[in-house]
Design brief:
With 243 residues, this protein is mainly alpha-helical. Helix content is 57%, strand content 8%. The strands form 2 sheets. Strands 1-2-3 form a 3-stranded antiparallel beta sheet. Helix 2 packs antiparallel against helix 7 and helix 7 packs parallel to helix 10. It is globular, with a radius of gyration of 19 Å.
Length: 243
């Protein structure tokens, strides 16, 4: 029986990192602002960074814990910074702990990624005024081709059942984790997306250690989202009741 080991499989090379892809998919192409500007998206960015380091075999998962496998530079400033943070940590931490810690630095991750995408002439930066007083930065698309190719490929995987590679499986899981499916596939295909994701998770070809790692990160993001929602609900209730 032939099985695929996805960490050893040569995946389709893409210039865009998982973080790049997630931010492009989350940006309103015309308005130039992030659609899911929420804590959940911050955790999804953290998950994307961890998955990217795993994809490059810089880190590995030992049970629920993250370990540095190769501390050499990746050549990317964001990944190198957080790889170093994981390396010098005084204790081994679980995936959920790193999702939380890296998620707290999501504004830095977003800012540096947007600068990179501007430098690559994929996005452009525009300054707009709100109420003629407050300056707000917007990032509309300058070159739509990279995002259009990404969206087209993801559409083929979900709607036409094309076979995904490892990186595409990862971005689909991140889309699901931060609730971006309607933005990416449209309201009419949201249920199709959910059904396709269930099928991919049950597929023997993506079972094993890699699927387990992706699952752990997705569950960690979802767990953090539940905590945030519960905290916000409790706060709102306390304000309403005056307690």
């Amino acid at each position: 029986e032939e099985r695929h080991n996805f960490f050893n499989q040569k995946v389709t090379q893409m210039k865009l990192t998982l973080i790049d892809q997630l931010i492009l998919l989350a940006l309103d192409d015309h308005k130039g602002n992030l659609i899911p500007d929420s804590t959940t998206f911050s955790y999804a960015l953290a998950g994307a960074l961890i998955l990217e380091l795993a994809l490059e075999e810089k880190i590995e998962f030992s049970g629920e814990y993250v370990k540095v496998k190769d501390k050499s530079a990746t050549g990317d400033a964001i990944r190198d910074q957080f790889l170093k943070i994981i390396e010098v940590s005084k204790k081994e931490r679980k995936v959920r702990s790193w999702i939380d810690r890296i998620g707290q630095k999501s504004e830095q991750i977003k800012k540096e990624t947007l600068v990179k995408l501007i430098d690559q002439r994929i996005l452009e930066k525009r300054e707009e005024k709100i109420l003629w007083v407050f300056n707000v930065d917007k990032y509309p698309t300058q070159n739509p081709k990279p995002e259009n190719q990404l969206r087209g490929r993801l559409y083929d995987i979900v709607i036409n059942h094309h076979t995904p590679d490892l990186k595409e499986i990862m971005i689909l899981n991140l889309i699901e984790s931060c609730g971006l499916e309607r933005e990416v596939f449209g309201k009419e295909h949201a249920k199709v997306f959910k059904k396709r994701m269930r099928g991919l998770k049950e597929d023997d070809q993506i079972s094993g250690s890699v699927n387990k790692s992706i699952k752990e990160i997705s569950e960690a993001i979802n767990a953090m989202r539940i905590i945030v929602v519960a905290t916000a609900t409790a706060t709102t209730t306390n304000i309403a009741t005056g307690s």
